[in-house]
Amino acid sequence: MSLPARLLLLQVLAPLVAILFGAVVASGILLAIDRDPLAVYGQMLRFTLTRADSLASIFFKATPLILAGLAAALAFRASLWNIGVEGQYYVGAILAAYVGFAVRGLPGVVHLPLAVLAGAAGGAAWAFLPIALRLRRGAHEVITTIMMNYIAAALVLYLLEPGLLRDPAQAGTPRVRTPEVLPGARLPSLRPLLDLVGLQIPGYSSLNGMLVVGLLLCVLFALVLRRTTFGFEVRAVAANPQAAEAAGIPLGRVLFTMFLLSGAVAGLVGLSDTLGFFGYFDIDFPKGYGFLGISVALLARNHPVGVIPAALLLAFLDRGAQGVQVFAGVPREVITIMQGVIILAIVVAYELLTRYLRALRKREAARAEPARPPLPAPGEGRRAGEAAGGGTP
């Protein structure tokens, strides 16, 4: 088997083996609580793959995970650690909600893109300070982005105070939220489009156009990183920053651009809920997408297109956990453990694969290197020259 074919096979087998390992570990837990693993997995597959509402739910749950995974992967591709996706999508979501309800008199074709751009701008703005501190003062982005998460959480709580962005109609009630966004800023449902291709989903499904945006962004960034000069610069910076800078690649510009792009994509993570499902931003807005996005990026090996199946896998397991909890009486924590084991197993599998490929390339290089004649012993070169030239003059 050729080296490229072997490489492709190993890359395909690594996640499959990790998923199988996670299933084996979960099976041991199921046996310990007196449950039949095959029956539980069968129930999970029937619940998730044979019901239209489950399929719609999986794609809806995968939408923010795709964007969060893409945001984390973009930073990782430049050897940057954006742990601030959580705070960036909070700021982006509340800013998009503000544009959605406060800006009036615009047609939907203008209002909706403006709200989406506001979310991306909010995420990029929240990512500006960490990368600026990294480039100007050497402050590590892991520390600064984690701190910015806490600041973002406090900021949105402050903005939801009465007299600021809190809905006046909710005064005197326990509901703490912004006003509802206007109809022109709501994300369109994907149900009519899916009906055209023969895929029937329930009318109450919240699957919306942000899924299409996420898929298009994954493809776009994959092409940019693979086919453009900027993508080559990113790969060079990630491989060896010092060598890239010595070759004339502007290191600071590449890092700054990639981190802001990561923040801009992170600002879109919460829009599926803000402009689609809820129609407002409230105090109980979904949390944790930012840290799940890191898991998605690790599963995808930071490949923009790879985050799509990785996000779908986590969404599938989350929906399956609901099914086995209701219909099989299995605690959903078992599936949560399975998720964690799969993530750890894939990370370990990819690390072993990387080391194997490194050793394989070294062997291939050594085999391809032409054989060199042995070096002459000390003095032999001079004596051979004297014999050929008839002695020493």
What's this, in brief?
This protein is mainly α and 393 residues long. Helix content is 71%, strand content 0%.
Computed structural class: mainly alpha
The chain-level mean pLDDT equals 88
Percent of sequence in beta strands: under 5%
Order of helices and strands: HHHHHHHHHHHHHHHH
DSSP helical segment count: 16
Strand elements, count: 0
Task: Indicate the radius of gyration in whole angstroms.
Answer: 27 Å
Largest sheet data? none
Distance between the termini: 60 Å
Flag low-confidence runs. none
Describe the structure.
This protein has 393 residues and is mainly α. It has a domain at 21-86 and 188-362. Helix content is 71%, strand content 0%. The protein is built from 16 helices and no strands. Helix 3 (52-77) runs parallel beside helix 8, helix 3 (52-77) runs antiparallel to helix 11 and helix 4 runs antiparallel to helix 5. It is globular. The mean pLDDT is 88.
Please tag this protein with its features:
393 residues, 71% helix, 0% strand, 16 helices
Write the layout of secondary structure elements.
Layout: H1 3-32, H2 37-49, H3 52-77, H4 85-102, H5 108-137, H6 141-159, H7 191-196, H8 210-227, H9 229-239, H10 241-246, H11 251-266, H12 271-277, H13 289-299, H14 307-327, H15 333-368, H16 380-389
